[in-house]
Structure formats: structure tokens, C-alpha cells
Amino acid sequence: MILKCIKTVATVAFAMVSINVAGQDLLARQAPIDRKLKAVDSLALVRQIKAEQAVYPAYSLYPTWENQRVHAYGNTVSVPDTFRIDLSGFCMPTTHTKITSKCGPRWRRMHNGLDIKVYIGDTIRAAFDGRVRMVKYERRGYGKYVVIRHDNGLETIYGHLSKQIVAENEYVKAGDPIGLGGNTGRSTGSHLHFETRFLGEVINPEFMFDFPNQDIVADSYLFIKGANRYAYQRTRALAAVKSGKMDQVVAKQQASEGNSSVRYHKIKKGDTLGRISRIYHVSIDRLCQLNGIKRTTILRPGQVLKCS
Asked: Model pTM greater than 0.70?
């Protein structure tokens, strides 16, 4: 009887050892498969991200996609103080070089783009890769126009066309024909009205596009909030960036405009709550309350604090 029990225990122990060895062997064989699956998952994720970017260009910047209004954002977006826009892969929207009206005040109203002399029927092309957000007609404004949102965060507007040859939600590549030059809408002669905007903020196209030389001004453009329409504002803001005083410039600008909207500050090396409170004219206790932190909280570069 005792011998029989010993045999039984030995058999069970041997079986358990065999199962354990077999399990380890199975895991060893499974490891390369897991690595392959992870690689497949990573590729699938990359493809998914690219697909989303194609469907909604600059989707990480813009909260909405709609086809009803050109200036659809208002206070619904948080515009960064600075943002570098990639201008590589561009195409000039027209081969014509004569600018007939610049960006800025005109006839007691703001002219938010450039007018370039073109003739009825001339081909107008997409400036960058992107997706067509709007194809509309505005009798007392843009006339027949096209709005494209680009992968680099810009939106471009092409107005007074005689014909639109793209559809809303269509993806286009830089250089693809999108319309023909015309004289529709509020226009006194055939020309292309060309606007460039970032999150709804007007950027003077001449800061990026050199129409006389049919080229871009540089490979990238540093967007500075509130300093993208007039040359003197941009010169002053760029000088502030180079001297490391951009935060003070932005704060003074917001104070002078009586801006009551939410303001944010991106932490840089050396920043303290005291320094930030002086820049934005808000107490340290208020900063802590707005951000759920304490006076002793360590501020890390790249961290964003709400300042109003």
C-alpha cells in the first residue's frame, strides 16, 4: 500500500514537472510570435495615424471639421503663443507675380490676404498637401472660393474664382489644380484673393510666399500670436523671441488688448511661480489654485500652466 502511494506521488510530480517544462517551452516558442505581433501592431498604428491625418489634417491642432463657415473657430481653439509651421513641399498657387493689393487696412476695412493679378481661366493650385474644407459661393465677398486645411496647420483660402474644380472633403496634393482664376464676388477685376491663416489667425502671405521670385521666404515660418499681419509687429515680436522676452511681450499685448480669455504658459528651464506671476500679473496663490498645485511643486520644462 505504501509502495503504491509512493508510485502515485512520483507519477504526479513527474507530470507536474513535464507540464512546467512544456509550458516554458511553449512560452519560448511564443516569444518571437509576440514580437512579430507587436511589430504588426506598431505598423497598424502608424497606418491608422496616417489615415487620420489624411482625413483630418492637423487634427491635433483643430478641434472641429465643418464645411459651413470660413472663420469657424472664434474662442473654440487655444492659439499657442508661438508655433513653427513647416513650409517645405510647397507649390505657388499661381505663376503670376504681380501683387495688386497687400494684406492690411484698405478702404476703411481690413484686407486679410493678398490680391495677385491673374486672368479668367488661369489655373490656381493648392499651396500644400491637405483636405478641402469648403467649396462655396459668396456673392458679396469671396465669390467662388475654396478653403483647404493643410497638414502643416495652415488653412489657405482662394477667392474670386471663375470655377472650382475640387469637392469638399477631397484630399489634394501640393500643386493639384483646385480652380480657375476669375472675377466673382466683391471684385473689381480678375485676380486671386489668397489668404493664409493658422487656427483662424491671419498671417500675411508675404511673410511666407515670395510671389515675385515664385518661392517661399524660408523652409519654415515662426507663428507668433498677434504678430502675423503687420511688418512692424512681426519685427518687434521676432526681436523679442531672439532676446528671450517673448513671454513679456505676449503678456503686455494681452493686457493692452484687455484680453480676458484663458492664457497659458509653457514652462522653460529656470521658470518659477514668482516669475510667471509677475509676467501675467496674477498671484502665486491664484496660479496654484488654477492648476491644482502647491507653492512647493517642482515645475518641469514643457509643462503648461493656466494663468487666467
From this structure: no
